[in-house]
C-alpha cells in the first residue's frame, strides 16, 4: 500500500486523518492519502507566499529551465506514470501511456518553449510608447478532477509557475497517485521550496478552503458544472481571477456524405475513450437519416467488438470506470434511458470478467437509440461509456439539435466535404469543434467552454494571459 503525504514548503508531510484510495478495477485499497483541512491549506499558502518574491524575481528564461527539468524527470518516469494512472483510475495502461504520461511531459515542455517565444506587446503613439508587461498574479489555487489526473494538473501548474506565480494545488481525492509522483519529481529536481505545494483531501474541505482563502488570488478549476457554480459563488465576490473548465454533453454530427468505414472508428473513439470519461467525449451522436440504416448496424457492430477488461492488457479498449459510485451513477442513466423509452442496442451492463476483475467497476460500452434529443438521457452529462443515437433530416436540423443543451464545451462534425463540415462546425455553440477528427490537440489553441461548460480559456497565450496580470506602462517621449 502506498502512503501519500502532502507536499508543502518542499517537505512531505502527513496528517492525522486519512482517506483510502481504491483501485476501481479490483476494489483493492491501494493507497492512503491525507484528509487535510484548512490548516494544511494555510501552511501551503504561507509557503507559497514566502516563495513568491524570489520566484517571480527569476527571469522568464530561468523559470522555463525549471520546467524543462521537470519535463525531463517526468519523461524518465513515463512507464511509472502510466501504471499509477491506470491503477488509480481503472483506465487501460496503453491509454495512460499514450495520453496521460505523454501529455503531462508535453505540457511542461510546451509551456517552457511557448513562454520562451513570448515577446511583450508594444503600442506606439505619436508621442509615447505603451509597453504591455505580464506580471505574476500571486498565489494560484489549482483544483483538478479524476479523469485525466496528471494531464490536467500539469496543464495548470506549468503555465502558472512559468509566469512567476506560486501554487497551492489540490488533486482529486479519487486519483492522487500521479500528483504525488509529480511532487517527488519536483522535489528531486530541487525546485525552490514553496513554489509548488500539493494538498490532498476532500473538495468540501481542501478545495473549499483554497477557493475562499483571501491570499489566493487566482483559481483555475476543472471539474463538474455543479461544483464550478459553487466555486464561482465563493470566488467571484472576492474578485479572484477565475477559470472554470466544466462539464459537457458534446454532439457528434455525422453528415450523409461520409465514408462510414473511415469515420466510425473515430466516432466510436470520441464516444468511448477513457470509458467515456473525457469532458470532450461525443455522447450524443446525430446521424443523417439518409445514412441512418447503414450507420446504426455498422456502428453497433464496431462497439460490440470493443474489448472491456484487464487495464494492463494491451488488448483492452476500455478499463474500469473511476469508482463504484460513479458506475452506479452511469447505470442509473441507463435505467433512465429505458424509462424514457430508449432501446439499448448494445452494452447496458457489467461484463463478466475473471478474478481479480470480476467485482471491478466495469461497464460495457452502451449504445442507446429511440430517445428524443431533448430527453434527460440525451441532455444531461453522464460521463461514462454511454452514447445516444438520433437521426436528423438536414444540416440545419442537426445544428439545432446539437445546440439544444445547456452545455457548450466541444463537438465534432464528420463529412466527406471539409467545407460543408466546417460550415456546420461554425454554427455549433461550443468552445471547440473538430471536423473529421476528435481530440486532435494543438496546445497553442484556446481551450474552454461556453454556456454551462465554463468561463475563460486556457492553452497557449490564453494560459499565459490568465496566469498573469497585463500591465500597461505608457512612456511619453521627452
Ligand atoms: P468534481 O466537480 O466532483 O471535482 C473536481 C475537483 O473539485 C476535485 O478535486 C474535487 O475534490 C474538488 N471539489 C469538490 N467540491 C469542491 C468545492 N466545494 N470547492 C472546491 N473544490 C471542490 O468533478 P469530478 O467528478 O472530479 O470530475 C468530473 C467532471 O469534470 C465532469 O463534469 C467533467 O466533464 C469535468 N471535466 C471538465 C474538463 C474540462 O476541461 N472542461 C476536463 C475534465 C473533466
From TrEMBL:
Q: Which UniProt keywords apply?
A: NAD, Oxidoreductase
SUPFAM superfamilies in alphabetical order = ALDH-like (SSF53720)
Q: Which residues form the active site?
A: 245
Alphabetized CDD domains for the sequence? ALDH_F8_HMSADH
Task: Kindly list the GO molecular function terms attached to this UniProt entry.
Answer: oxidoreductase activity, acting on the aldehyde or oxo group of donors, NAD or NADP as acceptor
What are the Aldehyde dehydrogenase domain coordinates in residue numbering? 14-469
- Could you say which protein family the record assigns here? Belongs to the aldehyde dehydrogenase family.
Q: Which PANTHER family match?
A: 2-AMINOMUCONIC SEMIALDEHYDE DEHYDROGENASE (PTHR43720)
Subunit relationships: Homotetramer.
| Protein name, per record | 2-hydroxymuconic semialdehyde dehydrogenase
Taxonomy, top ranks, is: Archaea, Methanobacteriati, Thermoplasmatota, Thermoplasmata, Candidatus Thermoprofundales
Amino acid at each position: 500500500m502506498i502512503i501519500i503525504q502532502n507536499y508543502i514548503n518542499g517537505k512531505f508531510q502527513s496528517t492525522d486523518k486519512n482517506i483510502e484510495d481504491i483501485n476501481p478495477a479490483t476494489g483493492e485499497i491501494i493507497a492512503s492519502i491525507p484528509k487535510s483541512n484548512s490548516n494544511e491549506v494555510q501552511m501551503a499558502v504561507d509557503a507559497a507566499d514566502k516563495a513568491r518574491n524570489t520566484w517571480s524575481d527569476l527571469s522568464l528564461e530561468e523559470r522555463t529551465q525549471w520546467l524543462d527539468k521537470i519535463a525531463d524527470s517526468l519523461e524518465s518516469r513515463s512507464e511509472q506514470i502510466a501504471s499509477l494512472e491506470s491503477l488509480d483510475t481503472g483506465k487501460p495502461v496503453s491509454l495512460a501511456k499514450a495520453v496521460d504520461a505523454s501529455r503531462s511531459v508535453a505540457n511542461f515542455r510546451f509551456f517552457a518553449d511557448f513562454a520562451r517565444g513570448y515577446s511583450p506587446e508594444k503600442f506606439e503613439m505619436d508621442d509615447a510608447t505603451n509597453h504591455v508587461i505580464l506580471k505574476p498574479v500571486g498565489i494560484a489555487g489549482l483544483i483538478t478532477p479524476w479523469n485525466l489526473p496528471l494531464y490536467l494538473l500539469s496543464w495548470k501548474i506549468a503555465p502558472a509557475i512559468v509566469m512567476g506565480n506560486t501554487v497551492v494545488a489540490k488533486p482529486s481525492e479519487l486519483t492522487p497517485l500521479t500528483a504525488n509522483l509529480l511532487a517527488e519529481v519536483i522535489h528531486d529536481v530541487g525546485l525552490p521550496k514553496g513554489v509548488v505545494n500539493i494538498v490532498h483531501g476532500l473538495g468540501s474541505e481542501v478545495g473549499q478552503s483554497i477557493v475562499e482563502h483571501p491570499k489566493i488570488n487566482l483559481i483555475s478549476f476543472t471539474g463538474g458544472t455543479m461544483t464550478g457554480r459553487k466555486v464561482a459563488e465563493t470566488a467571484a465576490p472576492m474578485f479572484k481571477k477565475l477559470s472554470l473548465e466544466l462539464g459537457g454533453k458534446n454532439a457528434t454530427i455525422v453528415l450523409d456524405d461520409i465514408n462510414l468505414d473511415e469515420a466510425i472508428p473515430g466516432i466510436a473513439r470520441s464516444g468511448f475513450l477513457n470509458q467515456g470519461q473525457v469532458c470532450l467525449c461525443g455522447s450524443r451522436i446525430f446521424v443523417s437519416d439518409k445514412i441512418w440504416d447503414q450507420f446504426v448496424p455498422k456502428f453497433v457492430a464496431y462497439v460490440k467488438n470493443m474489448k472491456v477488461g484487464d487495464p494492463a492488457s494491451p488488448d483492452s479498449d476500455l478499463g474500469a470506470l473511476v469508482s463504484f459510485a460513479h458506475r452506479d451513477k452511469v447505470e442509473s442513466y441507463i435505467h433512465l434511458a429505458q424509462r424514457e423509452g430508449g432501446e439499448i442496442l448494445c452494452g447496458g451492463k457489467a461484463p463478466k470478467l475473471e478474478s481479480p476483475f470480476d467485482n471491478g467497476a466495469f461497464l460495457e460500452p452502451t449504445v442507446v437509440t429511440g430517445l428524443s434529443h431533448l430527453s434527460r438521457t440525451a441532455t444531461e452529462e453522464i460521463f461514462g461509456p454511454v452514447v445516444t443515437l438520433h437521426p436528423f433530416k438536414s444540416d440545419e436540423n442537426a445544428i439545432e439539435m446539437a445546440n439544444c443543451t445547456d452545455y457548450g464545451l466541444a463537438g465534432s462534425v464528420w463529412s466527406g466535404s471539409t467545407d460543408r463540415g466546417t460550415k456546420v462546425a461554425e454554427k455549433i455553440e461550443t468552445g471547440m469543434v473538430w471536423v473529421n477528427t476528435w481530440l486532435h490537440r494543438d496546445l497553442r489553441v484556446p481551450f474552454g467552454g461556453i454556456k454551462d461548460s465554463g468561463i475563460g480559456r486556457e492553452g497557449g497565450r490564453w494560459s499565459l494571459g490568465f496566469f498573469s496580470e497585463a500591465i500597461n506602462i505608457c512612456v511619453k517621449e521627452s
